[in-house]
Amino acid sequence: MVTPSTHGVADRINEQISQNSHGRLFAVIYIGGHQFKVTTEDLLLIRTNRRFPDVGDRICIEKVLLVGGKDFTMVGRPLLNNVRVEATVVEKTLSHRKIWFYFIRRKGVKKLKLIQDFLTVIRINSIEVSEVEDDVD
Amino acid sequence: MTNRGIPSAFLRTTLHNGIGRYVCQLQRLTIKFCKEQKQSRGVRDFIENGLVDFAKNNPSVAVYAQVKRHRSPALVAEYLNGKTHIIPVAEKEAAELLEWLDFLRTRSGEDLIRMRKSQHTFSPSIQGAWTPVTNKQVFPPDFTFPNNELFQAHKFTESATDILQRLARKSTSKTD
């Protein structure tokens, strides 16, 4: 039982990329300590700090772990360098008030904190992929 | 209180903000203050020194300063989705006030409530949803089990034995 060889796979992917016939792409990005499977026009809620770019700024996400289309998937080892994912910062806000309550009964110990995290909402604008080199032996 | 008991919402933006260009959601900002009382001192300081710069940097925001005699000062922000956010700023310094203004400017006006999901998408799947038979081998109806073919190791290339056997089979079929 002979399984088909992987030779020519990169050529077939490159053919789709050069003709721009791959359709909608998706990617797995790493941002804010989390991995998200995103496609264009997605909204992401990430925990950041105040130093994150201002609202309206366009950012390029460099940690792309995986990209795929209807007919193919490319997995990075661990990152891909032929993919460009662009996003816009849409909102910088605070979370709702989270209640942190510490209590020991019969000891008169009672502490209450109201915690609000910094949150950022980004919109994925584009996922662009360029041709790959065939390094499959 | 548990998380289930508090109000929650899904991630959204007003009018698909950010798909084309970004639109600042803060439309109108009213600073209410008193000219006499001590608790409005930081606000009066900010109006004298920082308010014009803020208005110049954000031309899309209409800024009003409103005197409310003997009332505690507040920042009232009105957003494109019609919601209003009021921040009481009694006894606040001018520098702290600027940070609260920055917070109001970068917000979308949605309520600060628990988010059920950290992602929103219009196209949940590109390659199709997974099913139990996705990427599984499909057997023809006349395939009989158990079959020895299934128990053999995968060969990615043709081995020398395979080539010899193929050649032998070809030669025997010619002689027949």
TrEMBL record, chain A:
Molecular-function GO terms, alphabetical: RNA binding; structural constituent of ribosome
Translocase among keywords: no
Record-level GO cellular component terms: mitochondrial large ribosomal subunit
One Gene Ontology term from the biological process aspect of the record: translation
Keyword Ribonucleoprotein part of the UniProt annotation: yes
InterPro entries with a match to the protein in the record: bL21-like, bL21-like_sf, Ribosomal_bL21
UniProt keyword terms in alphabetical order: Ribonucleoprotein, Ribosomal protein
Homology family: Belongs to the bacterial ribosomal protein bL21 family.
Protein name as annotated: Large ribosomal subunit protein bL21m
Organism: Bugula neritina
Automatic annotation (TrEMBL), chain B:
Keyword DNA repair among record annotations: no
Gene3D superfamilies found in the cross-reference section: Glutaredoxin (3.40.30.10)
GO (cellular component) term, any one: mitochondrial large ribosomal subunit
Keywords: Mitochondrion, Ribonucleoprotein, Ribosomal protein
Record-linked InterPro entries: Ribosomal_mL43, Ribosomal_mL43/mS25/NADH_DH, Thioredoxin-like_sf
Family listed: Belongs to the mitochondrion-specific ribosomal protein mL43 family.
Name assigned to this protein: Large ribosomal subunit protein mL43
Species of the source: Bugula neritina
